[in-house]
Amino acid sequence: MSGAITRRALAAGLTGGLAAAGSARATAPAPRRVVSLNPCLDVILVQVADRPQIAALSHYARDPENSSVGAAGRGLAITYESAEEVVALRPDLVLMARHSSPATRAALQRLGVKAELFGVPESVDASLEQVTRVAAAVGRPQRGAALVARIRAAIAAAAPAPGEARLSAIVYQSSGFASAEGTLMDEMMRRAGLDNAAGRYGLRRTGNIPLEALVADPPDVILAGQPKAGAPTWAERVLTHPALGRLSRKVHAAPFPQRLMFCGGPVLIETAALLAQTRRDALAAGAGRARG
Predict the structure, then answer these.
(1) CATH homologous superfamily for 34-155?
(2) Which residues pair with 177 in a beta bridge?
(3) Residue 149 pLDDT greater than 90, yes or no
(4) Which residue, 13, 156, 172, 271, has most beta carbons within 10 Å?
């Protein structure tokens, strides 16, 4: 009997301790100075945090070709991910990705700077979970829930109607870069009624597809990146190659900004809308009829 009472007492004490810890976390003050070191975390942070909470974003926030932060990031400080820059900002929370600078991560850990580490989401559910985590970390869980609801609604609105034709497609970027099965982009394409054709060119994850392979066996739709203004870089030359231009007369071609390629979170709202509109435009133009 005494042993049973002891076990019950221990269990009650443990439960009470866990509840108290959870309550402490729930009532902990929101961080006042948050630094993000990753462009995909930047775009979530500006949506869920109070602006005065944001001490700095990553330097990508100033690059419109690679960031979807846009006007929300104007006027905010940036860092180039060095420990010296981050520490000088006196943050009480740093958001970083697993591929952030190992030296900076190690330095912040030695100095006792609180940090949250995030992976790269490879599915819609994982991306929405990341939104929830960032919002909770900055003390704004309700905004996270509202943003998740908006993203879910946008993805649902992009889905094809029952019985509507699906089309094969490739998202084609600088150097022929594309995403294959098992990636967030692949899932977004499928949800919008576009079947990712990367696998038929031998691509198993993310990588480059030779332009020759695309010309020899084109999909119904090519969503091509757009080179920067001025002279294209060597990597961008594939996007201005005459063969790709000629191919666009045989298949449905549409622009797809590179800034939509790599991040989830609120970026998925624009991604879903663009993929769905491209599918509708392609069907209206007769894409896919030759296969049928």
Answers:
(1) Nitrogenase molybdenum iron protein domain (3.40.50.1980)
(2) 208
(3) yes
(4) 271
